[in-house]
Design goal:
heterodimer, A: mainly beta, 7-stranded mixed β-sheet, 4-stranded antiparallel β-sheet, globular, B: mainly beta, 49% strand
């Protein structure tokens, strides 16, 4: 198992451009999460999927943000018309929920660092 | 509402010193509690966890006890090493499927 992977690791873009990030979770993890981390802060929840269903979206996720997990495996996060305030580290995590409903740990990927010029 | 408050850093200690990083939470229920660590240049890793009152999580010499009466989950280590230098995050799961992270505490250990 290679862990959670994210691509790209770094992205520099100009304001107004669209960007898309990819996350590959640990195989067979049915839950996938996206978080955003700005400098000096803890990660903030954006959204999560159980299999292919997007079950919750944070108010932080404006209508310029969209996330998909079409086959219940990898996920993409797209930001349209990027703004300088979107500059952050975007983190992906995955977990598996036990049949007993316990909250298993979330395994994090290395993140995609976005810089909007 | 649900929230977490973590001791602000940065914290600088000498090697072999005792470490405490405070974490308290406010919750309407009984969250699961996690400490994550971020080493320089690496991703977030789970350090330890506790899922019910009086549970003690431990790993790599670190410990934290779930204290329901004080709604706390303080991280402790008896003798820190230079390799413990990292950013530490307290992160409750308030039962709504996502982690709520504290602001993080940057720890630097001096030889």
């Amino acid at each position: 198992d290679t862990g959670v992977s994210q691509d790209p690791r770094h992205k520099i873009t100009k304001r107004g451009q669209n960007v898309t990030f990819r996350c590959d979770p640990i195989s067979e993890h049915n839950r996938l999460y996206w978080y955003r981390q700005t400098l000096g802060q803890g990660p903030e929840f954006l959204t999560y999927f159980q299999n292919e269903a997007q079950l919750e979206k944070s108010r932080l996720l404006s209508n310029r943000f969209s996330a998909e997990r079409p086959k219940g495996s990898f996920s993409t996060l797209e930001i349209q018309r990027t703004e300088q305030g979107d500059s952050a580290m975007y983190l992906c995590a995955s977990s598996e929920r036990t049949s007993g409903g316990a909250y298993n740990e979330q395994f994090f990927g290395p993140g995609t660092r976005l810089t909007v010029l | 509402g649900n929230s977490v408050t973590q001791m602000e850093g940065p914290v600088t200690l000498s090697e072999e010193a005792f470490l405490t990083i405070n974490c308290t939470y406010t919750a309407t229920g009984y969250p699961s509690l996690f400490w994550y660590v971020q080493y320089p240049g690496e991703g977030l890793q789970l350090l330890l966890k506790a899922t019910k009152a009086d549970d003690k999580g431990s790993n790599k010499g670190f410990e934290a006890t779930y204290r329901k009466e004080t709604t706390s989950f303080h991280l402790e280590k008896g003798s820190v090493q230079v390799s413990d230098s990292a950013v530490y995050f307290c992160a409750p799961n308030f039962g709504n499927e996502k982690l709520t992270f504290g602001t993080g505490t940057r720890l630097t250990i001096i030889p």
